[in-house]
Design goal:
Layout: H1 37-47, H2 53-61, H3 64-74, H4 88-115, H5 123-144, H6 148-157, H7 160-168, H8 174-182, H9 185-196, H10 200-210, H11 215-223, H12 232-248, H13 253-267, H14 271-292, H15 299-355, E1 366-371, E2 379-385, E3 391-398, H16 402-420, H17 426-439, E4 447-455, E5 460-466, E6 472-475, E7 479-482, E8 502-505, E9 509-514, H18 516-519, H19 530-540, H20 546-560, E10 568-573
Antiparallel strand pairs: 1-10, 2-3, 3-4, 4-5, 5-8, 6-7, 6-9, 9-10
């Protein structure tokens, strides 16, 4: 017996959605399909890590109907095991907890769909579509590295929430439900929300707890409609949804094209592989339906679809040889072009590295390092002697990546080095650079930069910041502090900006400048390093010589970042290290 009570209808007599704030009550436990108590007991026992197999076998055996169904499934051609299974105890022992739970869940779906009488909803087509998703998921499982039984069970469950929505909304017409079935998967969920005020995956979220579904299974069936599904099983379910849509729309070319595109994106499956899976489904669906005791439409119609797709496969294979030589020629041309671009990028990288200063004097109190995320870096740093005896330095970051960013980096470096030796103050240098970049800006690119001037006589440093992350000041015995640099925008956006210099003493202190590739770096778990993480690394390396300190911090960040998305630049101004 399935115990659910329909909520107040959400559709007007004219058939169009009619929603008023507060008109849709929240989903209640009583709204959800509840299988027999014996089935729920088995599902919950399978979720209990302390449960023992003999006790679970006794729960199954206590329900003769469930025991008979389970034996029928485990001995079927589609779900059968290597040997004939004659007893529930043997079935439970051979299956194990995970496979047993999957079999019982499949039987539960059959129980739920068979218990609901919905004249306004084509339950037979729903069951057929569910089996298509389940069988497609099973065929895709191996390539995605997941268990085939888990994939089949998840595929059978993934749209069960639609059946619940149909029961809760009896005034939605059969034509509207048929329209949902014919809609592409990416549009169907939006239509559900408009018609019912809920979605099938939202209902499944509540159902997962009631049925004691494993967390991985619940995450997959509730998240397979995400733009980028987070798990391999969720991606398989999303792909299976598109394959089932091809059958639901009787091989419609648009549905087939959508399946090709989505399977290539989700699982890197080729068009030929997708067609082969679609063509294999009729036999798979027939066998799965027989094993579960479900009724589906006569497979002759589905077989005809398979024949049409096989014909299409044959035609494409015939054209493959003709296309192959064109592909080989294209690949050869691509490889030649890639080799030439690689050589040019190597030269560009060498030129770019030559723009960074080389440490030729032992009395310079600045050390720095840049690690490019790709072939070319958009980060830069520089330091040199000015005409008034001070040491000028900077750290900058160009918005964007690639060659364009590298060229702007070179221009900014050259402007700072040239103007820094000729103009009076640091603020004037930054103002002139800003006006020049704003006048010649391309595609809205800009540069964040922090510039400084260190005076050895006073041990003071002058800082000007243009939209760059503020530097960190480390002083032994006091720890680390953030040096605020004002709210001046980056260089190259707005001309005519007046920059303000800030002075601070570096007596018994060191100053760290960095690009946001450091503070925004993420570790293997996706956690952002942030300023706190950078401060911890600085404190840990504070007793090392400056050059070793830089390497320790940068290597620690680069070592835990799984996929570096941005360049990394770190510089330290430490006059104390010279004494």
């Amino acid at each position: 017996m399935v115990n659910i009570v329909p909520r107040r209808p959400l559709i007007t007599s004219m058939g169009s959605p009619s929603f008023v704030s507060g008109d849709i009550p929240p989903l209640r436990p009583g709204d959800l399909p509840r299988p027999p108590g014996s089935v729920l007991a088995v599902l919950r026992a399978c979720a209990d890590e302390s449960a023992e197999l003999p006790a679970i076998a006794a729960l199954v055996a206590a329900d003769p109907a469930l025991a008979a169904d389970l034996l029928q499934v485990v001995n079927s051609a589609y779900f059968g095991l290597a040997d004939d299974i004659a007893s529930v105890e043997r079935a439970v022992t051979v299956l194990g907890l995970d496979a047993l739970r999957n079999r019982v869940l499949c039987l539960t779906v059959r129980t739920v769909t068979g218990a609901l009488e919905l004249p306004h909803f084509d339950a037979a087509s729903f069951i057929e579509d569910a089996l298509h998703r389940a069988c497609a998921a099973r065929l895709l499982a191996a390539g995605a590295g997941i268990d085939a039984d888990d994939a089949f069970t998840a595929g059978l469950l993934q749209d069960l929430g639609l059946l619940v929505l149909a029961f809760l909304n009896p005034l939605v017409t059969r034509t509207q439900w048929d329209g949902l079935r014919a809609a592409p998967p990416d549009a169907r969920r939006t239509l559900e929300q408009a018609l019912c005020g809920d979605t099938h995956d939202g209902v499944l979220g509540a159902l997962a707890s009631l049925w004691s579904l494993p967390a991985a299974l619940a995450e997959a069936i509730t998240g397979h409609h995400a733009e980028a599904p987070g798990t391999a099983l969720a991606r398989v379910l999303a792909a299976a949804d598109w394959i089932a849509a091809v059958h639901a729309r009787d091989g419609d070319p648009a549905a087939l094209a959508g399946a090709h595109a989505r399977l290539a994106t989700l699982l890197d499956v080729t068009g030929n592989e997708t067609d082969a899976i679609i063509a294999a489904l009729p036999a798979q669906v027939a066998a799965a339906a027989a094993g579960l005791g479900m009724r589906v439409a006569a497979q002759a119609e589905l077989a005809a679809l398979g024949e049409r797709l096989n014909t299409r496969l044959a035609a494409e294979n015939a054209a493959f040889q003709e296309m192959n030589w064109q592909l080989e020629r294209t690949l050869a041309e691509r490889d030649a072009l890639a080799a030439r671009l690689s050589r040019e990028l190597e030269v560009a990288r060498e030129i770019q590295c030559s723009l960074l200063p080389q440490r030729v004097r032992a009395d310079l109190p600045i050390w720095a390092r840049n690690v490019a995320a790709h072939e070319l870096s958009g980060d830069f740093y520089d330091y040199f002697d000015s005409t008034d005896g001070r040491v000028l330095f900077n750290v900058g970051d160009v918005a964007g990546k690639g060659l364009t960013a590298a060229l702007l980096m070179a221009k900014t470096c050259s402007l700072f080095r040239c103007l820094g030796r000729r103009l009076g103050t640091l603020a004037e240098v930054m103002a002139v650079i800003n006006d020049e970049l704003a006048e010649t800006a391309v595609r809205g690119m800009f540069v964040t930069m922090i510039a400084g001037a260190w005076d050895a006589r006073s041990s003071e440093v002058e800082i000007v910041c243009a939209g760059h992350p503020p530097p960190l000041l480390w002083r032994d015995g006091e720890g680390i502090a953030l040096v605020e640099g004002g709210e001046t925008p980056p260089l190259g956006i707005v001309p005519g900006i007046t920059f303000t210099a800030h002075r601070l003493s570096l007596e018994q202190a060191s100053l760290y400048l960095y690009s946001d590739g450091i503070s925004e770096a993420r570790d293997a778990d996706g956690a952002e390093l942030g300023l706190r993480g950078l401060a911890r690394l600085i404190a840990r390396a504070s007793r090392l010589p400056p050059a070793s300190r830089i390497d320790s911090i940068v290597d620690a960040i680069a070592g835990v970042t799984t996929a570096r998305r941005d360049d990394i630049t770190l510089a330290v101004l430490d006059p104390c290290a010279l004494h």
